Amino acid sequence: MQGAALCRLSLVGSKGDDMADRKPIATAPTDGSKVSVTWKDSDGVINESIAQYRDDGWWVYTDSHTQKKVEPTSWRPAASDDDDQ
């Protein structure tokens, strides 16, 4: 049986965001708030996901029912719903 497919997102946002606005993961909030993180999977693919820090680690959803602990390298605030203009 094949493993669950991961959603791989572009690291360039629709507003022309680039890696310059990302910050080192050591500076990310660890209060349980949601942030966007980049992390590398076991295939070496860089992913961007919404994550939360809890239970001594960063957790992302790989599908609607499955969470995975990851080791992100950078972060930025998660996009809000009113960020469309």
Summarize this entry quickly.
With 85 residues, the protein is mostly beta strands. The chain is 0% helix and 35% strand.
Main sheet: strand order: 1-6-2-3-4-5
How many helical stretches?
0
C-alpha end-to-end distance: 43 Å
Structural class: mainly beta
Determine the strand fraction and express it as a percent band: 35-45%
Runs in which pLDDT lies below 50 for 5 or more consecutive residues are: 1-17
Q: Write down how many β-strands occur, each being a DSSP E stretch of 2 or more residues.
A: 6
Instruction: Please state the average pLDDT score.
Output: 81
Q: What characterizes the major β-sheet? A: 6 strands, antiparallel
What overall geometry do the principal axes of the alpha carbons give? globular
SSE order, one letter for each helix or strand: EEEEEE
Helical percent range?
A: under 10%
Q: Report the radius of gyration as a whole number of Å.
A: 13 Å
